[in-house]
Amino acid sequence: MTTRTRNRLAAAGLAGVLALSACGGGGDDDGPVDLRMTIWTANDAHLELFNEIADAYIADNPGVASITFDPLPFEKYTSTLTTQIAGDNAPDMAWILENAAPDFVSSGALVPLTEKLGGTEGYDLDDLEPATTALWEADGELYAYPFSTSPFGVFVNNDLLTDAGQPTAAELRESGDWNWERVIEAAAAVNDSTGKAGLVVRDFDYTGWDNLSTMWAGWGAQAWSDDGTTCGFDQPAMVEAMTFLHEAIFEQSALPGPGSTADFFAGDSAFTITQISRASLLEEDGFDWDLAPLPAGPQGEYSVIGQAGLGVLKLSKHQEEAADFVAFMTNPENSAKLAQFFPPPRASQLTAETLGQTNPLLSPEQLQSVVIDGIATGIVKPSHLGQAEISETVRAQLDSLWTADADVAGVMSQVCQAIQPLLD
Amino acid sequence: MSRLREQPTTAGRARRWWTARRRDQLAGYLFITPQILGTALFVIAPLVMVAWYSLHEWNVLAGSFEFVGDANYRQLLDDPGLPGVLAATGVFSLGLVVLNLSLALWLAIMLNRRFAGTTVFRTVFFSPVVVSLVAWTIVWGFLLQNDGGINGLLSVIGVDGPNWLRGEATAMGAVVVVQVFKNVGLNMVLFLAALQGVPRELYEAASIDGASPWRQFRRITVPLISPTILLTSIITIVGSLQVFAQIDVLTQGGPGTSTTVLVYYLYQQAFDFHHFGYGSTLAMLLFVIVLVLTIIQWRMRRRWVFHEN
């Protein structure tokens, strides 16, 4: 091959590389920017509302050309988001689940928002309930807006309870019997007489153990101490709670056993523990249902909340624009719109009247007892630095609990032995 | 030739340079260029990058990327979870290879005979190969539930089936069987092709000499299809070491860690726990294991593969 030919080939190769680079895009730094937000919901109604808010923002902000909402599967949400970040494809904004909050907030992955939100006209940062922002703050800075603060409640199929000769949820509450012991008794009766499932802890399925906090909190149990350094699984309150649950599953058949499933919203179970946003799964002409707060445990009444935060990633090339959109999306006006799906953290909007306007399926009494009271007194589901690794370790240890002859105290002790090094 | 040398012209020189040989060479290079580029971009480059990442502590969320030398490799040696993971990987691979190859060979021998409906049976056994792996696994996940289709069938004959995916003794077996049924058709087709290449006269001659069917299988069939056995065993072993989707969909590594195989473990470390450096080190371990096994198989071919000795 002559020198001339070699040079021609090299030039052709270089031209090809340059052409490919040009096709790869990149943006015009001076022109309008494109923003992208990862979310876990692909619900059409949710997306319609998000896009409506985004369109209103774009109309007043020519510096932003488009805002895309990128739904990722819930089960792998945080892993997929992390993979996008590792692959240099980080979104500008992300919806962050509460179990990942400590990792995102403490790592410095998020842009501080206090100044931006506080400086936005009419925003009223002080309106945010302090209990809802605690998980998303560090050193006095707010790193994500607690977009959805949703208490867990119990949806009840009154038809199944009646078929089984059990009182309805309202009757149980009226008679002062709305407690775990009585609910499990009713659940077992439903299973025994109808063949349907009694109680389903939604999203648990014998792997998502943090959803069990909606039960064990009634015994005053905690996965770990408030400062996160000491394992709580082997404490007497937790052992008592898990013993109660184990008996409910394997002796009373009040919950579907491992490897069995039942969908409350399809009419397959009497009770389900979940968040109010799932009310959208109820059919208009379906069964007679009710929504009640979590039943009282031995320690009395309590509430557990799940959260999601909305933050701006530091890896975003358009941090300023992204933070500005977050301020717009979560201002009082848009927060009220979002309240129809996601209970807001704004104290002024946490009224049965406001929530009732956007939640036609739920009565003012249900909204007051489950949502408003729940947010005021609720504890957040367990979250810790390195939550994913802790969660997987607990899951692996708890697997031996889900057999009929398990030694509950022994398994709880094993859980602590396994996760204590991760808590230190 | 001598006249050409005496009367050189520009056109003549160009014609001499652009010979048929050079044209064929260029065509050859052009044909293999996509493959070389693909290998360089999607095999060599990622391998080098993973090796580089394995020498770093990479916290994706914090955006830190720190050189730590052999720290991840030392962690590999001290990882208390790794022996269990390697054991689970070994059990899965062994179970899959033995079941897959023996079942594929048996099916191929059966379907190599002439009887009505052979084509239908071949299609039935091969069709899972073209089905989406995740869809196939999800369906089997439903079938293997405690109240699923498999136990429903067992109950018809009065057998109380186990909770397949929740029992430490049954979960790995269930995952292996799901994978065997998914891919046995591919090896079956390869074996069928090999069987049809074995000359019939050899069997006829052996029959005349009084050789039993088993002796014919051992002395004629196995040696003559041994190159295919080598190929399928390499493909199946390497494939078994890379199993991921089946574990993720069916068991998520449980119960306990009984089905946590190496690829699933490295995925957890890198993408769930954000230990990308250590995940890369585990990927290097997997690469070395695959490489060593493949070299061993390749070297052993001279001992038992027909035409190679």
Automatic annotation (TrEMBL), chain A:
Keywords, alphabetical: Signal, Sugar transport, Transport
Pfam families recorded: SBP_bac_8
SUPFAM superfamilies assigned to the protein according to its UniProt record, in alphabetical order: Periplasmic binding protein-like II
Keyword flag Transport: yes
Coiled coil stretches, renumbered: none
Signal peptide: 1-24
Keyword Transport attached: yes
Residues that span the membrane, as ranges: none
Name this protein carries in UniProt: Multiple sugar transport system substrate-binding protein
Classification of source organism: Bacteria, Bacillati, Actinomycetota, Actinomycetes, Glycomycetales
UniProtKB/TrEMBL annotation, chain B:
Keyword match Membrane: yes
Name of protein: Carbohydrate ABC transporter membrane protein 1 (CUT1 family)
Native source organism of the sequence: Stackebrandtia endophytica
GO BP annotations, alphabetical order: transmembrane transport
Topology in membrane: Multi-pass membrane protein
Ranges that cross the membrane: 26-55, 85-111, 123-143, 171-195, 224-245, 276-296
Compartment annotation: Cell membrane
Statement: the UniProt record of this protein carries the keyword Membrane: yes
